[in-house]
Amino acid sequence: MAAVLAAALGATLLIPDGSDGAGSPPERPPVKADTARSGGESLDEKAAREKAMRTGKPVEVVALRDATSTTHALPSGKFRLSTQAAPVRAQVDGEWLPIDTTLKKTDDGWRPKATVNPVTFHTGKARKKSAKGERSSRGYARIPLAKSADGQYTDLATFTAEGRELTVGWPGELPEPEVSGASALYKSVLDGVDLLLTARDTGFTHVLVVHNAKAAADPALKKISYQLSSPDLSFSLNDKNDVLTVKDPQGVEVGGSPSPFMWDSSGKPAVTQGEPARDAAAKAGGTFALTGLLGPQIGTKRAPADASMTGGGTGSAVLSVAPDQSLLTGKDTVYPVFIDPPLYGKTAAWTTAYERYPTTSFWDGANFNSGTTEGRVGYESTTGGLSRSFYRLTWKSSIKGATISEALFTFRQTYSWSCSASEMEVHQTDDISTATTWKEQPTTRTHIGTKNFAHGWNSSCPDAYVTYDGKSIAQSVAANAGETKLTIRMKAKSETSANSWKKFVAEGASAPKLDMEYTRPPKEPTGLMVGDKPCATSSYPTYGKGNLTFAAGSSDPDGDLKSLHFQAWRTDATATKIVDSVRSTDTAGKADVVVDRTKFVNGKTYHWIVKAVDAAGVSSTWAPPGVINCGFVYDDTAPASPDVTSADFPEDDGNGGKWSEKPFGTAGKFIIKPAATGGAGTDRFYYSFNRESYIPARSVSVADGAAGIPLSPPNAGPNILYVKAADSAGNMSVTPTRYLHYVTPRDKADAPGDVTGDGTPDLYVIDATGDLRLYPAEPNGDLHSSLMAAHDDGKAIELDADEDGKPDYGYHWVDSTGNNPALITHNGDFTGGDGVQDLVARMPDGKLYIYRGDGYGSVDVSKRVEVHMPSNAPATSSLTQILAVGDITNDKLPEVFATVGDALWVFTGYTGAAFDTAIQLSANAWTNRDLVSLGDHDKDGAVDMIWRDFNTNRLLLRHGKPATGGAGTDLLSLASAANSKNGIDAQYGTNWTTAVIPLMTGSPDVNKDGIPEIWAVTGAAENGVVRFYPGGATVHAAPSVVITSDWRTKKRLG
């Protein structure tokens, strides 16, 4: 029995000459594939294609190379993928080399030079132990084999299956082998019995040679046991067909063995007339020269052997093979007798189904031969045997979406019954495995072809290649379905005629192969747009508004997308293209074409399509998909400006005397209707406060406008609502309606820190994505779900409509890399007059800004004002902390405290664009401190300061003194402990390390007791939950958890 021991996973093949010329196939052992050493520049598909088109020569896509397949880029811009049913190369020490099964000496024994699944034939001697458990050479582990009931096992062979090692042990001692080419012969392992191992491309074959009747009578041949041992593989045996399976820890099959088999030497090899019956190994003479090593031949007596296993399901098992004694010791038996308990790895990819032994597996040629590796087809009348052969072809990378222009199967026939042609069918089937037998054949699928031929009988019809057209099946399986595997069956059309019997090379460079020539076109364009509206294939919209921009995007699997080809025409004049333009794509694969309005006629319907084109001139299909087109009606007539009224915010009477009943910060209804004259066709209204900016986010339907839309004017005092009418084509009124109205100021200002108008301070946060969010608060410190807190004249700046992970507006509160977040704080009405709390921010550009609050919890970034500083102030780019503290000097203007390294500063007298005064309170120690809050803890009318000391990890309380005259706070009393009211800094809280509290901010009074509070983000020990610390006169109160999600990714609080 020819055993194949190979490791896992097949791939794609280098092809032989595909002509139908005659000639003998290469000699089998040792295998040396007829390809050059596989070095070369590691090119991907794009680079290889560019080089092929530039040089006019095929260029290999080295990145797609594997053991069984090769892909070339062709000068035409196409690709050729060649895959075979057997490896042509193996990766050795990171380098691809041609298959070479010639054995060479190593420390552990003998190893082939280059095979897919490395194997070592051991010397029969005890192997050296490697130091400190290291592997001996090239990754072969020392796997100790335990004694069985039959005695001590000796390591025979070690091979690798899917990167995991398996060792086969012989039940007794082994001699030093004799080596010839790819074979190692262990003589007299039993009296009159030799053991021959032969390296193959995916592993090795194994056969016991029983030379005579005396040897056959040895009781040791009643049952031959082999030890199977692996640290991380397991073994099991199928009782129905005696198939051995080897699985990894995840239960995935990585190897195994078909049914054991045996045969005698009574047969006669079937070879082409005039050719020798023995292969190259026979030149060595002796056992090497036995023709029976070629497998069962015409007239051979043969029989399956029984198999059993102990230790199944584990990594230490014993596989026992019981030869058929009637054949082994029969009166008519011709010696030698060959016994083959085979093993294989997952790379093996072909088999033969044999009717005479319907439950026996002949996987990878096992049991049929060990030297010629030939698949068989048809009826062999001498033995009454009927055969079918199956091959699995695989390739590394999917070519889904490709167009196959040509595909060819090639088979090398080496023998026929005669030179009279007979028909052979080739079909696609389901996959094959070690369990494939005559009784268990895969389901037949698509018929590939039938041909009539005969080669390999004599010189009149010598060995030759046979080809079948594979274009249709390659398109279906590889291109349309995107599969990377195709299994085929070779079957005689007449399975009762001896003339149908054929043999084909199954392994090596002449193994069955499939060549596929294909192109991979660009992807059909997507994202088809006219202006800001997507392609419509029914219920056509109306476009207008001047010139039209047609846009789309695509990509190319080969990375060489070049352009998009746009076409547009009027539906009642299809012969004339008003657009027929090829536009180069940008780096994102997008392109557009602007079409002048003069090309269109009002009221007419137009169709348009677009396709992608690559650098080789290969095109995608037209988009939209199928036979439909994008369509629209053109109309560029704009409606008149609309009528606007509001009872809540009446229009100015021209004298500035009409003020709203509703105060600033309260929404009211504005009623908008199409103009009585010229308003026909109005579809939507677009509006904007105080400047003209018309965006979809600020638009309403005609019905909503007539019902009244609730709007909140952004300022106290005069406001202008600009409104335009637009039709369904997007044409807007030439001029807007200008609705001037005056908004009554609030009767009282917002409470310190309150930006939602409920009297409770709220929390601003720069979150992990760099966006400003508002968390409205309750008096108990609980925080609500966040709200977007920044906009540009009403347009949210954190929207990510294209979902690229970055705001469409661009980063604002962080720098362009998403880092260096702004310093933020809010406590006070800096812009004055509206009573609304504003946000102070030192931005990533190093400048200090006031962001005016809009009265609804947000800030309008378009209205920010850069703050100018006194001449003695530090550069705003050097600020390390800022804290807005409201008006603590009783000058009716808010102040800001700040640190610059070790220095503590206060800026006072802000008057709308600049601070009047900058005072350095301290020059020492503030590098190791955190400003937390300022507020009146002891109710003496002066604010006190809470700060964190990193040296002691405490919160400290410094009491301020009332200013002279009792109004406001003496700022210098906050400069140092010595200057303070009590002359010391009192302990306010402990265990405030940065590990426990990495991020925090103080807040004006939240719980209505007049004392500031703290929100703090916890560290890893508490998984980043947010605590609320109520303030106290001398110490803070016990905290409560107000947010249970992890806030450690937040960038700033303020």
What is the strand and helix layout of this fold?
Elements: H1 45-55, E1 59-60, E2 69-73, E3 79-84, E4 89-92, E5 95-98, E6 100-105, E7 109-114, E8 119-122, E9 154-161, E10 164-170, E11 178-180, E12 183-190, E13 193-200, E14 203-210, H2 213-216, E15 224-229, E16 234-238, E17 243-247, E18 253-257, E19 261-263, E20 302-304, E21 306-310, E22 316-322, H3 325-328, E23 337-340, E24 344-345, E25 350-354, E26 362-363, E27 374-380, E28 385-394, E29 403-416, E30 422-429, E31 444-453, E32 464-469, H4 471-480, E33 485-492, E34 502-505, E35 513-519, E36 526-530, E37 533-534, E38 542-543, E39 548-553, E40 561-570, E41 573-584, E42 590-595, E43 605-614, E44 630-634, E45 643-645, E46 659-663, E47 668-673, E48 682-689, E49 699-701, H5 702-707, E50 709-711, E51 717-727, E52 737-744, E53 763-766, E54 772-775, E55 787-788, E56 790-792, E57 795-796, E58 823-825, E59 839-842, E60 848-851, E61 859-860, E62 865-866, E63 881-886, E64 895-900, E65 903-908, E66 917-922, E67 929-935, E68 944-949, E69 954-958, E70 961-962, E71 969-970, E72 986-989, E73 999-1003, E74 1013-1017, E75 1026-1029, ...
Parallel strand pairs: 38-44, 46-52, 56-61
Antiparallel strand pairs: 1-2, 2-3, 3-35, 4-5, 6-7, 7-8, 8-9, 9-10, 10-15, 11-12, 12-13, 13-14, 14-23, 15-22, 16-17, 17-18, 18-24, 19-20, 19-23, 21-22, 25-26, 25-28, 27-28, 27-34, 28-33, 29-32, 29-34, 29-35, 30-31, 30-33, 36-37, 36-39, 39-42, 40-41, 40-43, 43-44, 45-47, 47-50, 48-49, 48-51, ...
